[in-house]
Amino acid sequence: MKPEEEIRKTRYKTYALVWMILIILTGMTLSAAGMELGRWTVPIALAIAGAKSGLVLNYFMHLRSERLLIFKVIIPLVLAVFLIFILLTFSDLAFRGGVR
Amino acid sequence: MILGSLKEMDEVKELVSEEVRDDTGARLGMWLFILSEILLFGGMFILYSAYRYKNPVDFHHASRELDVILGTLNTIILLTSSLSMAASVAAIQRGQRRLSMVLLMATMALGLFFLAIKGFEWGTKIEHGIYPNSPTLLARAKGEILFFGLYYVMTGLHGLHVLVGVCVLFVMLILLLKEKINPTHVTPLENSGLYWHLVDMIWIFLYPLFYLIS
To answer: Cβ separation of A74 and B207 shorter than 8 Å?
Structure first.
């Protein structure tokens, strides 16, 4: 049996701080939606959502304190797969006559 | 038999130990499951983006019928439930069993509160005749029909995940009560927490894409 893995304990304060930032980012998303941002609306909304996910992944889901590389690689890997799906989908969609 | 050293005593203890555990393996398994869930919802997000790309005006109009206040409230509810979930794990790591159970129950309550609000939202829409294949909906613009189809499927599947999550957390609560989850064995609770944070993350993306595009 392996020796006991050291449990990285996160402080309650850290969790509360992350939560506070998440709420603030939610407020920012809300106010950004009220502004006239034109074609930047979607990228900004996704960027804020991405930032929130990053916080949840790293602090609530402890990715930051994981020591093995495999854990840190899984999420970027699935996002890379996504990027390929999206690029392929839109490189078709953008040049078609129309979706029926 | 006289054991020669402390090291030999440890080895004997390992041989007679009852359980075979692989905490890292269990956690890795949960992350792989999370990866598959991301692909599941991700596929639907790509579908959403394709239809929105083709029907921007209709999507904008349809989105205005959703209640932003309820959507924002639900976002805050899930974010707070993630806080209580993470704190629940932290509590049992520190041996604070009662606190851990209270925080876990708070997480479950927030999850059910989320579902109640979602149910209310669906209820009002259905009352107004807007549901998949309804005559009222089918009379509308094509893009709006697509928007509401995506709305019901994606928030529905997400809601199902929340419900399953609450049930899983209930099982964890029982395990905490029986002290099967304790400071030396936190992994089941941690993994349940990972699932719960995933459910929160999916909503983090659902919220702006359905409620805030007007």
So the answer is: no
The interface pTM score, or ipTM, of the predicted complex is 0.86
Q: What is the pTM of this model?
A: 0.88
Where are chain A's structural domains?
8-65, 68-100
Give A-chain residues touching B21 at CB under 8 angstroms. 1
- CATH assignment, B34-211: 1.20.120.80
Contacts of A32 in chain B (CB under 8 A): 212
Yes or no, beta carbons of A60 and B51 under 8 Å apart: no
Choose among A5, A12, A30: nearest Cβ to B87: A12
**Chain B residue whose CA is closest to A61:** B194
Q: Does A35 touch chain B (CB under 8 A)?
A: no
Tell me the pLDDT of chain A (100 aa) as tens digits.
343 445 567 789 999 999 999 999 999 999 888 887 777 888 888 899 999 999 999 999 998 888 888 888 888 899 899 999 999 999 998 888 755 5
3-class DSSP string for chain B: CCCCCHHHHHHHHHHHCCCCCCHHHHHHHHHHHHHHHHHHHHHHHHHHHHHHHHCHHHHHHHHCCCCHHHHHHHHHHHHHHHHHHHHHHHHHHCCCHHHHHHHHHHHHHHHHHHHHHHHHHHHHHHHCCCCCCCHHHHCCCHHHHHHHHHHHHHHHHHHHHHHHHHHHHHHHHHHHHCCCCECCECHHHHHHHHHHHHHHHHHHHHHHHHHCCC
